């Protein structure tokens, strides 16, 4: 019996991993997909044509980048549901608007007209009864120091050149955002409780925790 069956996780579940930059979403996406034998939906960072430009000049490229991410995530959403689920997704579509677009508009690095155009498009695409929401959102949280350490360790130049205040503000915004999020059931996990790198039993403990969350809340019983 595999881990998915052992802990009674439906084979058609769509689980999205949310959390600030560097917290460990991609690492957990891969580990959970391996453990559950699910497909993955990753953010493509290396092939994103706007990301470097954006980090160089937020004001100029915010709108382009948000439109690009929205299109990419929407295509991924469609792909996951066309397969009939069984996916782990690296970052939710909700964070684009709830964290990034909002933060840049409020900081003045995305102008109000662009923000409104983007928000209208997001709502028309996502906030409809036809848009399938994930079955579960796993929210990864951790201390600011740990997260800054991980951003450093990963070593993406564009992120390392960004002033640390940007990551501090994002960390705070994530806390507010998740406390108000109600798009789908949320399981909060602290990164200090799971060591996917060094603890060989970690993946199974995670799957067990997800399984018991699902049983308790019956979130995936259809
Ligand atoms: N459980 C973990 N323990 C230690 N380091 C980790 C862990 N998970 C991720 N990392 C490291 O932290 C950095 C960021 O992880 P990543 O999964 O790319 O984050 P995200 O996708 O949230 O931006 C990477 O260098 C990764 O190797
Ligand atoms: N919607 C977004 N707006 C701006 N920047 C974004 C958005 N989504 C992701 N990003 C950035 C943040 C990171 O530099 C990379 C990848 O994110 P990660 O959390 O490391 O997966 O893209």
From TrEMBL:
Provide the active-site residues from the annotation.
Answer: 90
Record-annotated residues binding substrate? 43, 55, 66, 91, 96, 159
**GO molecular function term, any single one:** deoxycytidine kinase activity
Going by the UniProt record, its keywords in alphabetical order are: ATP-binding, Kinase, Nucleotide-binding, Transferase
Coiled-coil residues: none
Query: Domain of life here?
Result: Bacteria
GO CC aspect terms:
cytoplasm
List the Pfam families hit by this protein, alphabetically. Answer: dNK
Deoxynucleoside kinase domain span: 15-214
**Keyword Zinc part of the UniProt annotation:** no
Q: Which family does it belong to?
A: Belongs to the DCK/DGK family.
The protein's name is: Deoxyadenosine/deoxycytidine kinase
Source organism:
Planococcus koreensis
């Amino acid at each position: 019996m595999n881990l998915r069956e052992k802990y009674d996780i439906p084979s058609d579940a769509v689980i999205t991993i949310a959390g600030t930059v560097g917290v460990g979403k991609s690492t957990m996406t891969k580990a959970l997909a391996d453990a559950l034998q699910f497909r993955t939906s990753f953010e493509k960072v290396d092939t994103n044509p706007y990301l470097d430009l954006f980090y160089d000049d937020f004001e100029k490229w915010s709108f382009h980048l948000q439109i690009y991410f929205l299109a990419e995530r929407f295509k991924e959403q469609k792909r996951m549901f066309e397969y009939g689920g069984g996916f782990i997704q690296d970052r939710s579509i909700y964070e684009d608007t709830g964290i990034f677009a909002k933060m840049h508009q409020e900081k003045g690095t995305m102008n109000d007209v662009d923000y409104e155009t983007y928000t209208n498009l997001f709502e028309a695409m996502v906030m409809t009864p036809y848009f399938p929401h994930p079955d579960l959102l796993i929210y990864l949280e951790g201390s600011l120091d740990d997260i800054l350490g991980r951003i450093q360790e990963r070593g993406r130049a564009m992120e390392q050149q960004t002033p640390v205040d940007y990551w501090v503000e994002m960390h705070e915004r994530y806390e507010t955002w998740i406390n108000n999020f109600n798009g789908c059931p949320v399981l909060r996990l602290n990164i200090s409780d799971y060591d996917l790198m060094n603890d060989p039993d970690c993946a199974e403990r995670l799957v067990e925790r997800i399984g018991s969350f699902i049983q308790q809340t019956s979130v995936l019983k259809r």
